Amino acid sequence: CDRCWSRGCSPGCKKCLGEQRRPAAPPPATVLILVPTRELALQIQAQLAADVRPLGLRCHALIGGRSVRKDISALRRGQHVVVGNMGRVHDMISKRHLKADSLKLLLLDEADALCGQGSRDVLYEILRFLSPDVQVACFASTLPRDVCELFPRFLRDPPLLIVDGGGEHALSAELLREDGGIHEDGYMPRHLQHLCVVGTSGAKIRYLASLWGSLAGPRCIVFCASRRTVDQVAAWLHGALRGVGCKVRSVHAEMDQAERERAVHVFRKGWAQVLVCAQDFARGLDFPDVSVAV
Question: Structurally, how many domains does the chain consist of?
């Protein structure tokens, strides 16, 4: 070969052949998507993987409750897009398994939750590892003023795109001011019906069970304030709705990751009609056929 000739070594030497056969370095991740829950990370990863696979790109989810060793192995093979929760992502970046200097785009989905009191310190730590030239985009269904006041710390003169409720989804844009001023007109779909029930826990469960027969093929998500309440409400609903052939599944953070994924899968497939979960669980999750939220 030409290298052998220029080096003066024998044709086909092992050193030159080894250099020719050396595989290309795996691609580093250039896009990082941070989300507040494991289930949302898995949903985004599944959708992105299907979209980018024909392009020869790879996407991986970094979430707690799964093997750290498998995450490290996946990153070493090369991932173009990484979706994950802040705890596992921070761990991978701090140990240099995820190359922060190669990231070009950071997306914060459900930014109001990521910038909350309990998680903003971890977010700041992740941002500290990133290049100052990285592009940052935030997405949220609600933007409390205290969250908006944090944006100037890591966003530079960001335009604010607001989806309003004027018939079709119209986009309006304005600059987010340093004082946190935002467009505060709320959006609530006009086709929704609202019902407020005041009473004891048992009375509310009995009312929901009695209402079930008047709803046409309902699929329901019940949000609870605590993990303990999730188990209690799921047990009550299971007993109250068992007679009408309704199956109930529950999800909360103390469950094993495999159990959580199985419960969401069963509900998404329609094999269970009710999903009981903590109030922040369903952030960003897409259940298009759900007709009732409690």
Answer: 2
Give the CATH number, domain containing residue 161: 3.40.50.300
Please, are residues 71 and 98 in contact by the beta-carbon 8 Å criterion?
A: no
Answer yes or no: is 195 within a domain: no
- pLDDT tens, position by position, 5-52: 444 555 555 555 455 455 567 878 999 999 998 889 999 999 998 888
Token pair 């020869």 is at which residue? 56
Q: Inform me whether the pLDDT recorded for 171 exceeds 70.
A: no
Give the pLDDT score at 175.
39
